[in-house]
Every structure is written in structure tokens, then in C-alpha cells.
Specification:
Largest sheet: 8 strands, mixed
Order of helices and strands: EEEHEEEHHEHEHEHEHHEHEHHEHHEHEE
Oligomer: single chain
Bound molecules: guanine, fe (iii) ion
Radius of gyration: 22 Å
Shape: globular
Helix content: 25-40%
């Protein structure tokens, strides 16, 4: 049974905006999975003395530990995990045809799906991804196995059954009418679980795989059930060329989705590497957010996404691992690649393009929560939000961060910043000692 009342005391770090990261000593009190009180260490001492926490389990962090919000992965493909690290020798459209569609087709086998998805969900939780926005496969029952795994392992998850109706060599597509019926069936089955952590997402794969009739129908279904919508936009130049060729009345890729009513404030678009100025003004007008997927954009040679330009256009941005176009399931890796790609753009001559580690950390937490319309529940430690958090232990969990005794002296505050910085740049899952989702411990290696 999870502890009903628990209070954490020690270094706590979380963002309130892109340029506001607060790192301080204090406490977070959690009741029934929700944050009920926060404050300084001094306030904790006073309240503890007054008996306020007598019914609480008190977790006092060591000097080398800290608490941060759980990571949010705004875009990943659960069925593609068996291909992680494989088949990255082709650009997007060839990669999909040669490696991805043949693998995803296998998820008509629900037993296979159940096994893979159980591993995927556990892998992500181990890496501190407390919330994931998943693409499943074309199959209702196969994708319901992902729903079951998320519920079983207590991960917050937005899950879509992928929709495609355009013919391809792998024979991996659906008849339009059948597809629309199946999407509704999937949504109803997910909603029937009445699980507060898991929600269905309407998921047109992209405008290469879906025609207007299908996308019009999917937009109606999303409206009917008040669902989020997720898709891909402007990832690769050949993709854009194909989409504009097959939609001659549309001036931009964004127009194609807009004409079907796909673009709204519950819509998350992955990639957005090659957006035009018109799209950079259309997307924020519609309230669309972007999942920035730097690993995949590099691995599939799609391009260097100008993420600062997207942020400056007032588009809400979160990070995505985009496995298996991306080769790493960890959001820590997405943070680092966000810094690297944006720095490459700056070094190539685009001024003020680089994102620093604090900004990338924001995108991985509160930015992601906002992109998924979940910031009323998660993303930082405001009172009233759910406690989705990572307890990070920088030195004593057998990771690769060494402690060098006697190095330069630092104040307590500086030491806390250094700890977080080391974790962001050098840490891995071994430093993530505990993971909490809605107050329930889902990983513990302490
Ligand atoms: N565009 C359409 N489908 C996919 C996919 O599975 N991965 C990536 N990276 N881009 C896509
Ligand atoms: Fe993707």
C-alpha cells in the first residue's frame, strides 16, 4: 500500500517558467498523492515540532539527494521499441517502409504486444518518465495492451491507436469506415477503465498516411469525446514535398491539418523541424503545441530543429524521445540533445539559439506538462498538483558520477545547483533512486 501521508525534506528543484528554475532546501507534504503544503526547511522544523506531521512518513534526503518533478515524454512510439538502435540508415519515408511498418504490423498479435509494452512502460518509469504520450499501432486490441501495462505499472499515459488509411507496401493501413469505427471503439474501451492516469488520444499518423476524409472524421471524433490529438508535422523535406503534392489546394503542411479541423488547443504535433513563417503564426493561433524530438531529427537526418524559434513564436514546447527514430528512451538524453542541437545552430550562425540546461530541464518537466495540457496536475510542485517526482541520488547509487572529495569549496546553495547540473549532464537511470507517480512509489533502488 502506498503511504497515505508523506513529507519529503531536503533539496527541491522545479521550474515555474522557461527562465525560472528554483532550487532550494525545503519540504513537500503529500496526502493521497496530492501536494498539500510546501515551504522552507525552517517552516518544516516548526510544523514538525508542533506535531503537524505526526501522521506522516518523513523522508529526510541526504546532502547528495534532491527531488525534481517527473519527466514528461511528449512523443514516443511504444511498438517501435524492439527496433531501438536499429535501421537508422534511411531517411524518414524509406525508414518507415523498410523497418517501421513491418514491425508495427506484428502488433496484431496481442500476446506479443502485451510482452513488449510491459517492458516499454517499465523501461520508461526506470528512466524517470512519469508521463508519456504514446503512439500505439493500428490495432485496437494490441494498443489496449499498452493501456493495461500503463495502468498495471501506474504510469501517467496518453495513448493513441494509430490511424492510417493510405495504401503502403507493407499493407499496414485500414479501410476508412472501419478505421473510424475502431478509433471510437478504442476510445470507449480506454474510458471504460475509468483510470485517472490514462487517457485516449486521437492519432492520425501523419498526412502521408491519412487522407482528408479520414482526418475530417478523426477531428469529429476528437471533438465528440473531448480528446487530445497527436500527429507529426514537417519532419523531413521529402515528406513535406509529398504532402503538398497530394494536397494541391494547401499552401503549407499546417494548412492540410487545419482544413480537417485537426489543429486546436488539445493538439500535439511532433517534430516541426521545417515550419514556415505562416505555420509559425498558425500553430500558436490554434493553440497547437510541439513535441521537440532532437535525437530522432538527427538520427533520421531530418534536420536541426530551430527550437528557440518555435518557443519565440509562442508555441508551447515539450520534449519527445520519438523511439525508434530516436535511439534513446530517456528524457535526460532528450535534454542533452536539445542543448546540443540548439548549440549547433548557434555555432552555425543563428544568434541566441542555444538552450541552456535550465531551459532544457523546463521543457522536460513543466513545458511538457503544458504541451500535453496536464499542467494543472503535474510539471512542478505547486500545491494542489499530483506528486509526480524523482528522488535523485547523485553519488551513491553506482552511477557514473564520481565524488571528488576536497575539490573547490561551495556554499550549500551552490552545492545544490552543482548536484542538479551533474545529474542533467552526466547522470542516468542509476541516479534515479525513487520514482513517484501521483504519490505512489513506482521505482525504488535505495
Ligand atoms: N512520421 C510518421 N510516422 C512516424 C514515425 O513512426 N516516426 C517518426 N519519427 N516520424 C513519423
Ligand atoms: Fe514520431
Amino acid at each position: 500500500m502506498p503511504d497515505k501521508n508523506i513529507v519529503f525534506v531536503g533539496i527541491i528543484a522545479s521550474s515555474s517558467s522557461l527562465d525560472q528554475l528554483v532550487i532550494s532546501s525545503g519540504y513537500i507534504a503529500v496526502q493521497d498523492g496530492k501536494i498539500t503544503k510546501t515551504g522552507s526547511t525552517k517552516e518544516f522544523d516548526e510544523l514538525e515540532k508542533a506535531g503537524e506531521f505526526s501522521s506522516y512518513k518523513v523522508v529526510k534526503l541526504s546532502r547528495d539527494q534532491f527531488i525534481i518533478p517527473g519527466f514528461v515524454d511528449c512523443h514516443t512510439h511504444a511498438p517501435q521499441f524492439p527496433n531501438i538502435g536499429l535501421g537508422l540508415d534511411r531517411p524518414l519515408l524509406e525508414w518507415l517502409a523498410k523497418y517501421t511498418f513491418p514491425l508495427e504490423k506484428k502488433y496484431s498479435d496481442t500476446e506479443f504486444a502485451a510482452k513488449v509494452y510491459d517492458q516499454v512502460v517499465q523501461r520508461l518509469l526506470k528512466n524517470g518518465t512519469t508521463t508519456a504520450c504514446y503512439f500505439g499501432s493500428l490495432h485496437v486490441d494490441g494498443t489496449l495492451e499498452l493501456v493495461k501495462s500503463a495502468i498495471k505499472h501506474h504510469q501517467r499515459a496518453l495513448i493513441g491507436k494509430v490511424s492510417m488509411n493510405k495504401e503502403n507496401d507493407a499493407g499496414y493501413y485500414n479501410d476508412t469506415k472501419k478505421e473510424l469505427e475502431e478509433v471510437e471503439t478504442f476510445i470507449k474501451k480506454v474510458l471504460a477503465y475509468q483510470n485517472e492516469l490514462v487517457e485516449p488520444v486521437v492519432t492520425p499518423r501523419f498526412a502521408v498516411s491519412c487522407d482528408k476524409e479520414l482526418m475530417d472524421g478523426l477531428a469529429c471524433i476528437a471533438n465528440k469525446y473531448n480528446c487530445r490529438i497527436q500527429s507529426h508535422i514537417s519532419e523531413n523535406l521529402s515528406e513535406i514535398e509529398y504532402v503538398l503534392e497530394t494536397n494541391p489546394k494547401c499552401a503549407t503542411y499546417g494548412d492540410v491539418y487545419d482544413k480537417s479541423g485537426i489543429l486546436n488547443n488539445k493538439c500535439i504535433m511532433a517534430h516541426a523541424v521545417h515550419l514556415t513563417d505562416k505555420e509559425l503564426s498558425l500553430l500558436p493561433k490554434k493553440g497547437v503545441s510541439v513535441a521537440h524530438c532532437p535525437a530522432s531529427n538527427t538520427r533520421l537526418k531530418s534536420g536541426l530543429c530551430p527550437v528557440r524559434r518555435i518557443i519565440n513564436a509562442n508555441i508551447t514546447v515539450g520534449l519527445g524521445t520519438d523511439v525508434s527514430g530516436g535511439d534513446n528512451a530517456s528524457i535526460l538524453d532528450a535534454i542533452r540533445r536539445t542543448m546540443d542541437v540548439s548549440m549547433c545552430l548557434e555555432m552555425q550562425g543563428s544568434p541566441n539559439c542555444a538552450l541552456n540546461w535550465k531551459e532544457a530541464f523546463y521543457l522536460a518537466t513543466l513545458g511538457g506538462a503544458k504541451a500535453l495540457n496536464l499542467d494543472h496536475k503535474i510539471g512542478n510542485f505547486e500545491v494542489g498538483k499530483d506528486f509526480d517526482a524523482l528522488l535523485v541520488d547523485v553519488y551513491s547509487t553506482g552511477g557514473q558520477i564520481d565524488k571528488y572529495e576536497g575539490a573547490l569549496p561551495t556554499t550549500t546553495d551552490e552545492y545544490a545547483v552543482e548536484l542538479l547540473q551533474k545529474f542533467i549532464f552526466v547522470g542516468d537511470d542509476r541516479n534515479i533512486a525513487q520514482v513517484y507517480v501521483k504519490g505512489e512509489k513506482v521505482k525504488d533502488i535505495l
